[in-house]
Amino acid sequence: MRIDSAVGLVDRSRFPGAPFGRDFSADNLRTILVRNRFEGAILFQTLGGEDEARWLLEVAGEAPWVAAVVLDEGVTASGGAVRGRRLEAGADLPRRAAEVLARGETCVVRFRPGAAREMGELPPGPVVVEALGWPGFGGEAEFRGWCAEIEILAERPETAIGVSNLIDGAGAGRWDATTYRPWVQFALDRFGEDRLLFGSGWPRCSAGGTWKESLAAFTQALGAQTMETREKILGGNAVRQFGLRAAATLAAAR
């Protein structure tokens, strides 16, 4: 089954401060997923805070295609749909991650340069590095430094890496898959086909293109793969890493 492992929603009537020029609703997302033969998606907070968290959980309760919700660290809202927490890499990360993992949730870590060693000290349990570690897709020096940290991150067998938000900074219609190919290929080589997760980054990706263009940038950067490998990366790995509900439940929602 196919799962978009990193999406958000925007409702400006509820949250006037949302940094987008229009709404990005659950209905919009469901239409996109069905059109592209995806069974579900994992919702992340876009703005942060308790009100948004409760709203996302309401959406999840009404939409069986919402496979999971990932809330920000420190948000107290809870529910059966919550399968992960997003943590900023930094002070005391192993202790903070241990609290999340003890609840049976997945840690999604917003990585920062220099934090690879610290992440190697995390307690046992599922961890996802968010958005390839948020590289700037810059020149050779940045790429070499990023590769060195990816090498360290990949040593922890329970850590996976999300590949999302590739086209965010490209500008509308200006993305080029060759920009991302070295980064995606290196992540695939080090983490392997069982620890790579696709995420569109919608709606943030709309600054660079459509949801479908975000998928195209990823698949073109990934290159030719077997059907089995593609299905793992496009959903199967997310099901395992986040402990998602039965595939049949999501498939029935299409």
State the gist of this model.
This protein has 254 residues and is of the alpha/beta class. The chain has helices spanning 26-35, 50-62, 93-102, 116-119, 140-153, 177-191, 211-222, 227-242, 247-251, and strands spanning 3-7, 40-44, 66-72, 82-88, 106-110, 127-129, 159-163, 196-198.
- Strands, count: 8
> What's the CATH topology label?
TIM Barrel
Strand order of the largest sheet: 1-2-3-4-5-6-7-8
Number of helices: 9
End-to-end Cα distance, whole Å, is 12 Å
| Helix/strand class | alpha/beta
Query: What is the radius of gyration computed over CA atoms, rounded to a whole number of angstroms?
Result: 17 Å
In terms of DSSP E residues, the strand content is: 15-25%
Mean pLDDT: 93
CATH superfamily: Metal-dependent hydrolases
Q: Please identify, by name, the CATH architecture.
A: Alpha-Beta Barrel
Give the biggest beta sheet. 8 strands, parallel
Shape: globular
SSE order, one letter for each helix or strand = EHEHEEHEHEHEHEHHH
Domains counted in the coordinates: how many?
1
Quick one: CATH class?
A: Alpha Beta
Low-pLDDT regions: none
The percent range for helix content is 25-40%
